[in-house]
């Protein structure tokens, strides 16, 4: 049944990353309630973005191309989250880049080069 297919989401704001799943038919307002359960921030003080585009509360996730074939557990779809500030405005999107793994030690680089040579 295609209507009930799960989509996997990675919702990011500053240094926070939330992983959750929902149905393709889930409204954005319902997703905000899920986020509220985690962050304790009310849905009316949240704004979600897909590709820097504001997601409207009455639209479902599939309307934004968030479907089971594009938002899989192994590669969740990425959304941005902002909160309403005290002045009533929403903050701008601010996502801290994920850290990079440290450089490989020289010992391991040698092994990697060996594998690359044998692959040719």
UniProtKB/TrEMBL annotation:
**What pathway does the annotation place this protein in?**
Protein modification; protein ubiquitination
Sequence similarity: Belongs to the Elongin B family.
This protein's encoding gene: EOG090X0JP1
Its subunit composition reads: Heterotrimer of an A (ELOA, ELOA2 or ELOA3P), ELOB and ELOC subunit. The elongin BC complex interacts with EPOP; leading to recruit the elongin BC complex to Polycomb group (PcG) target genes, thereby restricting excessive activity of the PRC2/EED-EZH2 complex.
Q: What is this protein called?
A: Elongin-B
One GO location term (cellular component) = elongin complex
Is Oxidoreductase one of the keywords? no
The UniProt annotation puts the region (Disordered) at: 95-120
InterPro entries hit by this protein: ELOB, Ubiquitin-like_dom, Ubiquitin-like_domsf
* Intracellular or extracellular location(s): Nucleus
**Record carries keyword Ribosomal protein:** no
Q: What is its main location?
A: nucleus
This protein's UniProt keywords: Acetylation, Nucleus, Phosphoprotein, Transcription, Transcription regulation, Ubl conjugation pathway
**Domain of life, source organism:** Eukaryota
SMART domains from the UniProt entry: UBQ (SM00213)
Protein purpose: SIII, also known as elongin, is a general transcription elongation factor that increases the RNA polymerase II transcription elongation past template-encoded arresting sites. Subunit A is transcriptionally active and its transcription activity is strongly enhanced by binding to the dimeric complex of the SIII regulatory subunits B and C (elongin BC complex).
Report the residue ranges that make up the Ubiquitin-like domain in this protein. 5-66
What is the native source organism of this protein?
Megafenestra aurita
One GO BP = transcription elongation by RNA polymerase II
